Automatic annotation (TrEMBL):
<dbReference type="InterPro" id="IPR015424">
    <property type="entry name" value="PyrdxlP-dep_Trfase"/>
</dbReference>
<dbReference type="GO" id="GO:0009862">
    <property type="term" value="P:systemic acquired resistance, salicylic acid mediated signaling pathway"/>
</dbReference>
<keyword id="KW-0663">Pyridoxal phosphate</keyword>
<dbReference type="InterPro" id="IPR019942">
    <property type="entry name" value="DapL/ALD1"/>
</dbReference>
<dbReference type="InterPro" id="IPR015421">
    <property type="entry name" value="PyrdxlP-dep_Trfase_major"/>
</dbReference>
<keyword id="KW-0032">Aminotransferase</keyword>
<keyword id="KW-0808">Transferase</keyword>
<dbReference type="Pfam" id="PF00155">
    <property type="entry name" value="Aminotran_1_2"/>
</dbReference>
<feature type="domain" description="Aminotransferase class I/classII large">
    <location>
        <begin position="12"/>
        <end position="344"/>
    </location>
</feature>
<protein>
    <submittedName>
        <fullName>LL-diaminopimelate aminotransferase, chloroplastic</fullName>
        <ecNumber>2.6.1.83</ecNumber>
    </submittedName>
</protein>
<dbReference type="InterPro" id="IPR015422">
    <property type="entry name" value="PyrdxlP-dep_Trfase_small"/>
</dbReference>
<dbReference type="InterPro" id="IPR004839">
    <property type="entry name" value="Aminotransferase_I/II_large"/>
</dbReference>
<dbReference type="GO" id="GO:0010285">
    <property type="term" value="F:L,L-diaminopimelate aminotransferase activity"/>
</dbReference>
<comment type="similarity">
    <text>Belongs to the class-I pyridoxal-phosphate-dependent aminotransferase family. LL-diaminopimelate aminotransferase subfamily.</text>
</comment>
Length: 349
């Protein structure tokens, strides 16, 4: 990466505006690294400055008149970008929900996968697996049901696979592993949690050619327009870093990074288990979803903060379905994680 960045300061190596969709070599490398044999090609990949920005750009593409569904709880950017675009009704304080959004409840009772028979039809379905915050990865059977549901309803799935490299069982790492998904889904993903690129800012969106509106027009063509109009492409320095990530050496290094955080996750899971808590997630994601039945997640968060000086995340920040939980993140130095766990043990012993 540093050689490539240095080259940018030379007459020969300098480059100005690049292709808005990303450098050809990086698009090809992402397609072959993450979608080999899944029928996703180089020109289906749009390189971005991260999944969050792409979620908002997708909302600009969808516009204000669409309806959307989200897992409840889920990463807040889906609901918040929907509010900003004007897709929602007013916030309803009594149920802690925005009007016109379909909240798909994901709880321990339904194995953190929504009961689709009770879900209202929407134009768009945001679906994140492994999920932030519950840490739960949907199975092949469950995702097959989701794809079928989208097909029957003429819905588009925006599948967020930002944590796919944390999957350690046979859960799918991409929605495109599900037969027929290419006709109903697109996928946003990111190097943020694979390579510690949260500050570097690099991600991508994969949009299959088979994904068409009901009038037969390809969605990718519209997204291309949005990317060219609202973005202009990821930084060439960050893209050089991305190419390093998907080299043989880089892939090995990413697995090491992911493995390190997975070990942190095990330490946190073991700690809460030993204290008698019901703990979810953690297996396929760097997040541990700890259950505090009957308690307000903000109260639990405050107590932990005040008594241990450890920052967790109150579950209700991810939607009303997160009430009664806190999310504990494994993204930290080993020493800090061990120290936090010692303090949890002191607080709850
Ligand atoms: C589910 C999910 N999607 C997307 C993102 C954002 O990724 P990026 O840093 O690529 O914008 C996050 C970050 O926490 C996330 O949890």
């Amino acid at each position: 990466m540093s050689q490539r960045s240095y080259a940018l300061s030379t007459i020969d190596g300098y480059s100005g505006y690049g292709a808005e969709q990303g450098e050809k070599k990086l698009r090809a490398a992402i397609a072959s690294t993450y979608y080999a044999d899944l029928g996703i090609e180089e020109d289906d990949i749009f390189v971005s400055d991260g999944a969050k920005s792409d979620i908002s750009r997708l909302q600009v593409l969808f516009g204000s008149t669409v309806t959307m569904a989200v897992q409840d709880p889920s990463y807040p950017a889906y609901v918040d970008s929907s509010v900003i675009l004007g897709q929602t009704g007013q916030f309803q304080k009594d149920v802690e929900k925005f009007g016109n959004i379909e909240y798909m409840r994901c709880t321990p009772e339904n194995g953190f996968f929504p009961d689709l028979s009770t879900v209202r039809r929407t134009d768009i379905i945001f679906f994140c697996s492994p999920n932030n915050p519950t840490g739960y990865a949907a199975s092949r059977e469950q995702l097959t049901k989701l794809v079928q549901f989208a097909k029957e309803n003429g819905s588009i799935i925006v599948y967020d696979s930002a944590y796919a490299m944390y999957v350690s069982d046979d859960s799918p790492r991409s929605i495109f592993e599900i037969p027929g998904a290419k006709e109903v889904a697109l996928e946003v993903s990111s190097f943020s949690k694979y390579a510690g690129f949260t500050g570097v800012r690099l991600g991508w969106t994969a949009i299959p050619k088979e994904l068409l509106y009901s009038d037969g027009f390809p969605l990718a063509k519209d997204f291309n327009r949005i990317v060219c109009t609202c973005f202009n492409g990821a930084s060439n320095i960050a893209q050089a870093g991305g190419l390093a990530c998907v080299s043989d050496e880089g892939i090995k290094a990413m697995h090491e990074v992911v493995g390190f955080y997975k070990d942190n996750t095990d330490i946190i899971v073991d700690t809460f288990n030993s204290l008698g808590f019901k703990v979810y997630g953690g297996k396929n994601a760097p997040y541990v979803w700890v259950y505090f039945p009957g308690q307000s997640s903000w109260d639990v968060f405050s107590e932990i903060l005040e008594k241990t000086h450890v920052v967790t995340t109150p579950g209700s920040g991810f939607g009303p379905g997160g009430e009664g939980f806190v999310r504990v993140s494994a993204f930290g130095h080993r020493e800090n994680v061990l120290e936090a766990c010692r303090r949890f043990k002191k607080l709850y012993k």
